[in-house]
Amino acid sequence: MTAFIASLNPIVLRTSSVMSTGELAAWAQLGKNSIPRLIEGFGIRELSGSAKNHRYSVHEVMRKILGVTVRHAEDLEPLLYPLQKSTWVAAYTGLSVSAINAAICEKRLTLPAPIELTHTDHRQAAARGRRWVPAQIDAYLRNEPIPFIPTMTTGPAPKTASQPISRNVFAAIFSDNAKVSRQCHL
Q: How does pLDDT run across 108-152, given as a tens digit for each residue?
């Protein structure tokens, strides 16, 4: 780990597999009053019932917010560094905050994707709840494989009706590419 990430302090949990509201707020870099909306938005179950100090499963938090299932304690350690805001990413990468936000809005961001902690719809301004996993940014800048990327499952190929055969080779190539392309067509 580089010196810049090493200067961050990981969240120290009082219990190894449970996060309190304060620990979750410190990890997500949110205020304590924002935690109820966070857990509701991600569907995280509360372990403590109606107690004053709410508790949440660390594994469920990581699985539902980051999309990562942690199997070993040593895999959990790099994930306990607090999620970072765009100002930290800007200072660490040398990009400006406005350049990062513009790249996100224009869908041309080359950095690892941020996690949206606050949910917005198309009528609202860009979310202020964007956070990055420090280990992902560090690995990206060192040109190493990005850790903790959730695996994307692909479903079975859709059945298509037989298409009439075209005599134009270029039209056939373009139509085949259009069927399998993951880009959004406007």
A: 889 998 998 887 666 655 567 889 999 999 999 888 888 887 654
Between the alpha carbon of residue 24 and those of residues 12, 32, 51, 92, the distances in Å are 11, 8, 16, 24
Nearest of 63, 73, 71 to residue 115 by alpha carbon: 63
Q: Which of 144, 139, 175, 182 is nearest to 160 (CA)?
A: 175
CA distance 23 to 13: 7
CA angle 167, 170, 171 (to 5 degrees): 70
Closest to 10 in 3D by CA, of 84, 118, 96: 84
CB within 8 Å of 19: residues ≥ 6 apart: 11, 13, 27, 55, 56, 57, 58, 61
pLDDT by residue (tens digit) across 35-67? 988 999 999 999 876 666 789 999 999 999 999
- The alpha carbon of 165 is separated from its chain's Cα centroid by a whole number of angstroms, namely 43
